[in-house]
Design goal:
This protein has 280 residues and is α/β, with parallel strands linked by helices. It has helices at residues 58-67, 93-108, 125-136, 152-182, 207-219, 233-238, 266-275; strands at 13-20, 23-30, 41-47, 71-75, 113-123, 142-146, 187-189, 227-229, 253-256. The strands form two sheets. It has a seven-stranded mixed sheet with strand order 1-2-4-3-5-6-9, sandwiched between helices. Helix 2 (93-108) packs across helix 3 (125-136). The chain starts with 12 loop residues before the first strand and ends in a 5-residue tail after the last helix.
């Protein structure tokens, strides 16, 4: 099975950095193999799954988009990977969106990019962030969400029930209070095979996420973190990209989603699509 997995080609990407609200973020740029240095091309700016760094998931898309003639920019959100930001490994979706908006601005100002032909393409949680970014950055030429995360609280509610999610959020509230009380950053596991008495809270408590991040952090992404701030839980579980969908129009929107996704629920993708205006 391992031999069938896609493997990215690090020589295809070049390190970059740019400013995001006073922080220096680390990124990669992928250029079309056939493009001469300085040749102007359309561009795509990408964001990926929760907790992921630029060496995970996105390289497989970025290389293929570059082969199709696009300059592609990926980045580590603030506090993650090689980017600046404190506390480390604090995940707030709206801060990721702010970084995404700044990544788009950086891309539009590159000399080798046609600023009028820049698109946002997000994968997993990055799909929801692509919608929120397109709602804010009106110069984008297009927006696409692939297997997007639009309402993770809705997923947890499906998994735990309404009372179960409320209890889970109370645990998050209590952990946040520990931050306030002693001034020390509390951390929770980023991944777990499942919730249990030993691991009552985790950002991604699924077997699929546990296997994926364990493997890719070992083989390709050593800067990925197995811990995330406990304070991340509140904003993460209450972020809702469906409210952003109507604000994307008239920027063209594409939503691509599977029909059997148990973590990123298809009905939430349909809700985002239904809420969006034309063209879509």
């Amino acid at each position: 099975m391992q031999s069938n997995l896609l493997v990215a080609a690090p020589p295809r990407r070049t390190p970059i950095s740019f400013d995001s609200d006073g922080l220096t973020l680390a990124g990669h740029v992928y250029r079309p193999p056939q493009a001469e240095p300085g040749t102007v091309t359309p561009a795509i700016v990408m964001a990926g799954p929760v907790s992921s760094v630029k060496e995970q998931t996105l390289p497989h898309y970025a290389e293929r988009f570059a082969d199709a003639g696009y300059t592609v920019v990926t980045f580590d959100p603030r506090g993650f990977g090689e980017s600046e930001g404190e506390p480390r490994f604090h995940y707030d979706p709206w801060l990721v969106v702010a970084d995404y908006v700044n990544a788009v601005a950086y891309t539009m100002h590159r000399d080798d990019v046609d600023a009028g032909r820049v698109a946002a393409v997000g994968v997993c949680m990055g799909g929801g962030y692509a919608l929120a970014t397109a709602a804010r950055e009106r110069r984008l030429a297009a927006c696409a969400s692939i297997a997007g995360g639009y309402d993770i609280g809705g997923t947890f509610q499906r998994m735990l029930g309404a009372e179960g999610l409320a209890s889970y959020m109370r645990l998050a509230n209590e952990l946040r209070d520990r931050d306030r009380a002693n001034g020390e950053v509390q951390y929770v596991p980023t991944i777990a095979p499942a919730l249990s008495e030993e691991v009552p809270v985790a950002i991604m408590p699924t077997e699929e996420a546990y296997e994926y991040y364990s493997r890719t952090s070992r083989d390709h992404a050593p800067t990925w973190s197995p811990k995330t701030t406990a304070a991340s839980l509140e904003p993460y579980l209450t972020f809702n990209a469906i409210s952003q969908a109507p604000l994307v129009a008239p920027t063209p929107l594409l939503i691509v989603h599977g029909t059997t996704d148990a973590a990123l629920l298809p009905e939430l993708a349909q809700a985002a699509y239904d809420a969006a205006g034309e063209p879509k």
